[in-house]
Task: structure prediction
Amino acid sequence: MAQAEPVSQDFVPVSVKSTSAQSEAKGFIEGQSLSGSTRNWYARERATRAPLWKYRKSDGSLHDTHSRDNWVQGTILNYSSGFTEGAVGFATEVAAYNAIALEQGRAAVAGPNNRTLTHSDGDVIGQWSKMGLANVKARVSNTTLTAGRQSIDTPVIAYIGNRALPSSFEGVTIRSEEFDNLAFDFGTFDRLSQRTEQGTSKFVAEYGDRAFEADHVNIAGVNYQPLKSLKTSFYVSNVEDLWNQYYFGANHELGDSSVLSLTTGLNYYKTKDEGKSQLGEIDNDTYSLSFGLTHQAHNLSFSYQQVNGNEYFDYLHDTNAIYLANSLLSDFNGPNEKSMQIAYVLNMAQYGVPGLKFNLYNARGWGIDGTHYTGTGYDVKKLDDENHYEWGIGTTYAVQSGSLKDTTIRATYTAHRASKNQGDGSLDELRIVTTIPFNIL
Result:
């Protein structure tokens, strides 16, 4: 194996940044921008064993179905002002979200779901809009306070952008980047605007009983890079009356990818019930460990993930706060579950086609056991030595130049097979997503 260049393993001392972002502010109008994107999102799902979805006919009768088709056009128009000049700078960000349902059949969409917005009876809403982002910002030096509806990406609360439109949050955050290799995050939130929702809602668990809501979510975190090749992060969150969650992550790179490089990733979550413990007792330790080998155009990775706890590893509903290596179509997060994944990525830039990539993977989970669970917040007691596997193949192309530069086209085919009581079921999914960015100002 080729050794990394010596500089890549150098220690990075903590030092104050020599420049201030606020000192370079251009002004409220001078620094403004108007941009956006439009995304065509299509997914075709087929259950291969028992039916997985239901739909209502116009007469109100409920029917099982083996199929679900969702096709939505989502458009975002984002206005961001520049920061005003001076010791304290002020700015604002506003983004309008619009969705058009291109598939509107009740039986096809099988709603309500998190793909196409429907009424409670499954009748599709053909077109809808909302204010996806609306916030004001104040900045001193390299520290920014943001208040209002915003997007954030951390291991304990994170927007999810794998539908036609992304989710967002209402709250107040502080991001401090006063040091070259050390950054801090603080935040408090009271509402979530889901991917397929016109309004806002309180926070609930992704896998626990959603009858229990959290009025507030509070977070704090630090990102620290002790070596040029090593990045670490530690975050903590308090989901009021549901849980406290602690996260540690590390990513290390070794070697030269033109010959051979090794990337190692570790993610660890500790979750404990807190306050009124509305989901019952939670005592969960979950981690993933991954190794990735890269040689020029080729990347081969191996991941192991394990859940230690009699309940699901859980996170906030309609967020992407699961920084685990085996979070795929399935999260592989059942009680006491162990899973492994092998994945391969081919970057065609090395063969004269920049922007084109292919990937394939296979993941297997086993030992899912909720029979020792004594609480009521999670429906896991019937999970007795359950197992499942998933494989997927995909391709992505990003336009490299011209008026459509940075447009991406992504096509994936995923198959998931599960034992009788495993929660995700057995299904195949074809997904085709085209995203076109644009700039107006």
Residues 283 and 395 are 39 Å apart (CA to CA). The mean pLDDT is 96. The radius of gyration is 23 Å. The first strand starts at residue 33 and ends at 47.
